[in-house]
Amino acid sequence: MSTVPVIAVDGPAGVGKGMVTRWLVQRTGFHRLDSGALYRILALAAVAAGVDLDAHAAVAALAPGLQISFTGSSEDDEAILVGGQDWTRELRAETTGALASRIAVSPEVREALLQRQRDFRLAPGLIADGRDMGTVVFPDARLKLFLDASPEERATRRQRQLSKAGIAANFATLCEEIRARDARDRGRAVAPLKPASDAHLIDTTGLSPEAVLARVEALSVAAGF
Ligand code: CDP
Ligand code: CDP
């Protein structure tokens, strides 16, 4: 097992994992893994290659050939390049999140991405966000956070976030999409969305970003970060 420290940040769609992760990266100088982006990229790559998303072995087979690079460090300047092309905008769409959750039910797809995620564990440390960071990918993470909030509040946050990026989204549709994605992520047989037994639960409903970060700061100080 690696001795490089990991902080795992898990939780459902639109709960603030990215915000917390970016803040922790700034605080610690650690590397970052946005594991959801890998599932999103693989789903879009399968669509682009004309592969049926339910043909899980064929989807998984695309994973090793994907050339991915992450640039930027804030929500405004982050970009994700796949094969040298900028996929950032398509990757952010809620419809892409839904495609990602369809392939994420597959054990073959999860296995194909497992080592790739662990390869991000480099000195001086890693902040990793997703659904199974604390349970499956980095079970020995030194600090595990599990964020939650009501679906309505997460849809409101996501709508505001998308509108800032110039993407219009209907609130009722977003709510519906987020509920459907959560149900699929929580209900799947492999690596379902659930807190690790040693995770710290943070219910962020009604909490401002500052209030959430104050809780995160207290927990990270207590864990020695
Ligand atoms: O990564 P994840 O999908 O979990 O969520 P995010 O992209 O970090 O957060 C979604 C949006 O909600 C961002 O624009 C955050 O700044 C915002 N947010 C918020 O308004 N209040 C919070 N307590 C947490 C996040
Ligand atoms: O930012 P948001 O929480 O909306 O989504 P994301 O983290 O980009 O993840 C997109 C989808 O990928 C999720 O709904 C999951 O189905 C899947 N995923 C997963 O299964 N395991 C992970 N570690 C990360 C994402």
TrEMBL record:
The keyword Transferase applies. Its main location: cytoplasm. Its EC number is 2.7.4.25. Keywords: ATP-binding, Cytoplasm, Kinase, Nucleotide-binding, Transferase. It comes from Stagnimonas aquatica. This is Cytidylate kinase. NCBIfam families: cmk. One of its GO terms (biological process) is pyrimidine nucleotide metabolic process. One of its GO terms (molecular function) is ATP binding. Residues 7-216 form the Cytidylate kinase domain. One of its GO terms (cellular component) is cytoplasm. It catalyses: dCMP + ATP = dCDP + ADP; CMP + ATP = CDP + ADP. Belongs to the cytidylate kinase family. Type 1 subfamily. It is found in: Cytoplasm.
